[in-house]
Amino acid sequence: MALREIIILPDKRLRLVSEPAQAIDPELRRLVDDMFETMYEAPGIGLAAIQIGVPKRIIVMDLAKKDDPKEPRVFVNPQVLWRSDEKNVYEEGCLSIPEFYEEVERPAKVRVKFLDATGAEQELEASGLMATCLQHEIDHLDGILFIDHISKLKRDRVIKKFAKAAKRLDPE
After folding, report:
1. Which candidate in 41, 86, 105, 137 is catalytic?
2. Are strands 46-48 and 87-94 parallel, antiparallel or unpaired?
3. pLDDT (tens digit, 9 = 90+) per residue, 18-66?
4. Does residue 69 sit in helix, strand or coil?
5. Which of 8, 85, 139, 166 is the most exposed place for a label (fewest CB within 10 A)?
């Protein structure tokens, strides 16, 4: 396992649409292991492969509370089949937009189809934090960031702040 660098806004790769994973092979398993190590170290509860610069449709997630046993979940080629009309609002953050949090309204429930770590096709109906996290991470796979769900004014401020910070780090 290896710790990977999480790419940060305004990195243009965050806007890429990720390609489906072709096979559950040793290379994909290594990537998933690296993603978990990176996510736990950050620390975060979800990570999409594109956030470490790999444009593949792979998500790792662990919603276990801090002192509870880990509950790692892998979602390969996830696809939302259904979204509820009922909405929920959660304060979201993102490892690619560090230290910025904002309330986001999303469907309260979703049904998702995906391959698990063994390659078996699964379907999951999720609500609460799981539904929010799945939607947030699947958005990443489509080049969408959680700030795209907030007001244009707030989004523009955040983008400007991160663009300035990136310029300070790399003046060229």
Report:
1. 137
2. unpaired
3. 999 999 999 999 999 999 999 999 999 999 999 999 999 999 999 998 8
4. coil
5. 85
φ, ψ dihedrals at 27, nearest 5°: -65, -45
- Convert the pLDDT of each residue in 59-86 to its tens digit: 999 999 888 999 999 999 999 999 999 9
**CA separation for the pair 108, 166 (Å, rounded):** 35
Whether 111 and 124 have beta carbons less than 8 Å apart is answered as: yes
Output 107-113 pairs: Cβ under 8 A, ≥24 positions apart: 107/83, 107/131, 107/135, 108/84, 109/83, 109/84, 110/80, 110/82, 110/83, 110/84, 110/134, 110/135, 111/80, 111/81, 111/82, 112/75, 112/78, 112/79, 112/80, 112/81, 112/138, 113/78, 113/79, 113/81
Count of residues making up the chain: 172
C-alpha span between 30 and 80 (Å, rounded): 25
Q: How far apart are CA 82 and CA 84, in angstroms?
A: 7
